[in-house]
Design a protein that fits this description.
Radius of gyration: 29 Å
Helix content: 40-55%
Shape: elongated
CATH architecture of the largest domain: Orthogonal Bundle
Number of strands: 9
Largest sheet: 4 strands, antiparallel
CATH class of the largest domain: Mainly Alpha
Strand content: 5-15%
Structural class: alpha+beta
Length: 405
């Protein structure tokens, strides 16, 4: 982030600004000069609307525009902002066109209000990483099917088919919205096919689970370690665990009442907890009898001068302990969501009916549950051998003892 200048911008100071630098005026808030890597210098003014949305207007280039002239224009822009007028929107209307960057922002900030937070977060990540650097200044009508194909192909090579397909879906929605706004007449994504996606079948072996729990025991901070343990014991989704509040738990009955706002299906999920989870949670509650969140994290606005503000938000990730677990165990090609598949598989191997497994995982349909249940090859082989033995006995064939499991 560029630092605000402690002095008033002058012609001499502006002439000394180097490529890639941005300096701000000490007299008019938000007024500054930006120098591109190529050496082009332009005056800008940044602002924040009363409702919180940020904006920026380019005032003109230097030396075509003097410092005093640019400062006066900056004051005019800020006066409009104080009156509730967005100068950026005014200029967009004057140009009569919106760029891809404008529509991407509209998707994330306006249309995204009706989407799940994680959906918007993932879309913004993909747009910022892959699409905006390439198409930021493009008019919507100028983006072609070949442009989309080239972009998606590149993402497929760098990040795999799943990310490429998610970006394609996001772009398609952006162009559909742009068509509705009459900014383009067609959607260039429609002719770009989705890549095949192999469903993930990874689950943890018994040895891997033992290693993970051992790594949790040796981790310096036990609160995030308990979050990993709860993932193992319950097969719950990561965000369900991280956002869990103590009021959701009945530790006498051993139940977890997940509110609809925390579940993927957006419906209440009552989960009976395994004994190991109940024992762990009771021990945690004894250490934190008045806390709100089971796995509290530091407030994003934490002030070290007021430590009592700490731990007022739920933990947002488990990246640090997961890195520790990977280093301690050497486990590769695994993620935290695989605990759900592991729990489902273990229940299936215990001959639990699919409806019970679906209920434990909070699935809306049995079809979803079936995707999560993956018998390991040893179990499959054992069952197959027993089936073959029965088949051969029925037709009078002798069973080969060495093949029986």
């Amino acid at each position: 982030m560029p630092k605000k200048s402690s002095v008033r911008l002058t012609k001499r100071l502006v002439e000394k600004v180097q490529p890639g630098e941005t300096v701000f005026d000490a007299e008019v808030p938000g007024f500054g000069l930006r120098c591109t890597p190529a050496g082009t210098k332009s005056f800008i003014v940044q602002f924040r609307m009363p409702h919180g949305k940020q904006g920026k207007v380019t005032l003109g280039g230097f030396p075509t525009l003097t410092v005093d002239q640019a400062r006066e224009r900056a004051r005019e822009v800020l006066a409009k902002v104080r009156a509730g007028v967005n100068p950026s929107a005014d200029r967009a209307r004057e140009r009569g066109v919106e760029t891809f960057a404008d529509r991407a922002a509209h998707y994330c900030e306006v249309y995204g209000a009706q989407l799940k937070g994680r959906t918007v977060k993932d879309a913004k990540y993909l747009l910022d990483k892959y699409a905006i650097p390439v198409w930021a200044g493009h008019k919507m009508a100028d983006v072609t099917q070949d442009d989309v194909l080239k972009l998606i192909t590149g993402v497929r090579e760098k990040a795999g088919p799943f990310q490429a397909n998610r970006l394609r879906a996001t772009l398609s929605k952006i162009f559909n919205l742009a068509m509705g706004a009459r900014l383009c007449t067609s959607n260039p994504c429609l002719g770009v096919k989705k890549y095949p996606e192999d469903p993930r079948t990874r689950f943890y072996s018994n040895d891997e689970l033992a290693a993970i729990l051992s790594a949790c025991d040796s981790y310096p901070l036990q609160n995030p370690a308990c979050a990993v343990r709860l993932l193992v014991f319950t097969g719950a989704r990561l965000q369900e665990v991280l956002r869990a509040e103590w009021e959701q738990f009945d530790l006498q009955q051993g139940k977890w009442r997940k509110p609809s706002s925390h579940t993927k299906a957006k419906r209440l999920h009552n989960l009976g907890l395994p004994t190991r989870a109940v024992v762990m949670l009771r021990e945690m509650r004894a250490l934190d009898p008045d806390g709100k969140y089971v796995f509290p994290g530091r407030d994003a606005k934490f002030d070290p001068q007021h430590p009592d503000q700490d731990l007022r938000r739920p933990r947002t990730h488990l990246d640090n302990i997961w890195k520790w677990i990977e280093e301690q165990t050497g486990i590769v090609d695994a993620n935290r969501h695989d605990f759900r598949r592991t729990k489902a598989t273990a229940m299936l191997e215990d001959a639990q009916p699919l409806p019970i497994i679906a209920s434990a995982l909070g699935h809306s349909t049995l079809q979803t549950t079936m995707k999560y249940t993956q018998l390991d090859t040893t179990t499959q082989q054992s069952a197959s051998n027993r089936a073959v033995d029965r088949m051969l006995i029925k037709v009078g064939q002798k069973v080969v003892e060495s093949e029986k499991s």
